[in-house]
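Notebook B, p. 112. Complex prediction, attempt 2.
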Amino acid sequence: MQAAGWVFAMRSSISQGAPLFGALALAATLCLACASKSPQEKLLDATKPAASWIATLRMTGERWNANSVPASFVKATAGKAVDELGAVAEEAGKSPVPPEVRLPLQRLMTAARAAGSGLERAVEAGDRPAAARQVARLAALEGELAAWRSGQKGRAP
Amino acid sequence: MSMKKAATLALGILTSVGGFFDVGAIATSAQAGAIFRYQLLWALALGTILVVFLVEMSGRFAAVTRQALPDAIRQQFGFTSWLVPFVVLTLIHFLTLGAEIGGICFALHLLTGLPVSLWALPVAALVWLFLWRSTFSAIENSTSLLGLITLAFVVAAWRYHPPMGQVLAGMLPTLPHHEPARYGYIAVGLLGAIISPYLFYFYSSGAVEDEWDESYVAVNRGVAVIGMGFGSIISVAAIVVAAMVLAPRGIQVDDYHQAALMLTQVFPFWGFALFAVSMGIACVGAAVELSLAMAYTSAQTFGWNWGENLDPREDARFCLTYTGAILAAALLILFGVDPLKLTLFSMAINALVLPFVALPFLLLMNDRKLLGKHANGWISNAITILTLVVAIVLAVVSIPLMFLGG
């Protein structure tokens, strides 16, 4: 087929395809509207990255103790993790969910931030036993957060 | 086949393997493996099939017509028809270039501990100097051969002994068990990372720079099929490593610091440095290719002199384009844009513009006046149409998925 013919066909198909694009855009908008979640579900979602950051801190500490990552990496990762965990604690504080749901989570986030900062200090001081203690603390917090999450999943609407 | 063509084929395959992996592949593969284990391997497989065909077509087109794609699109469809896609593609290339520069800066941050933003201007100067001083072949061969270091991911994946049944099952699309919006967003990102529009403009312009003719059609096919096929194995390996190391620990990749742990388990001493060096080299290669792709596209759109093998005095506007692009993209990182977020956003947007890329392919590759007996057959046309359908679906879903799952 000649190029001009192709161009004509292309333009015509694009103009005929406009309603399809419109329908798909409408469906996407509806999806967005349906995506609204309850405060409890939102809080549960926010704890996913928190759990991931606690696991990251733990692995980073383990790898530093095994001489696999440099101290500068642990400091940068711990700094980032503490900020992210702080953001989740703040979100929990602002959440309209009942206090008996959010307060344990806030306590967990505070403890995880403290463990992250403790790991950073231990690495700065080159204190491997102290780093190992923070890694053990982070492992315990991972378990506590998983328990909190499974408890909330049971209750979520 | 002459010795020269055999060497071109061998080098082309090596450079495809080394050049396939970039910051988008690292980010999306790490996220896919960490969150969905092997379940998104199908997106990689689909993307690889499509990119093999599209790269083969862009090389065949350049070899037969001795014209690069943007040049041909402007000539065949007119300047005004091409102007809007050109502007959109330039914007996407710019964001992707920012992501690649961010990747280099992050690799240097890992190796030195200095802040990411501090590296933005030195990295921009390094990439620019590399382009300013080198010829096309030197750039293509050095960055891509160095990029073979990314084979460390393949060695790591092999040493983990992944469950082959699950890996093979992942090659077939399945519905996600959790987080469907994020699943869709990462699938879009994976496809956007593999089918990057700049690749075709760079590849076809490079073929013209290397003075390919009709006799290179078979070489081009070998490079596209074998090189891209092997190249995708590195991305598969990255997904496997993330699935074996990060997923069992519940580590998602929301930040490159998390991805940097991927190789530390299997290579306790070298793993961290291997990741940083792999990332740095892969991103240098991609940043150079992107800068050149932007300059090629601009020069061919406006009819300027172009060619990396020319003296800068002979193609001043071509050189000015990549200089400006590199500097502006580095400013994104200098002003604190998160490299991972920029990467994932760029990959999703890459998917959004795929129709602009796929449609001209279909039109040009069927023009027998231009290509004669080398015009597309039914298999290539079917693949291009599939690409177009996938591209349109991706274009429509990528923005809502960005809000829901990004």
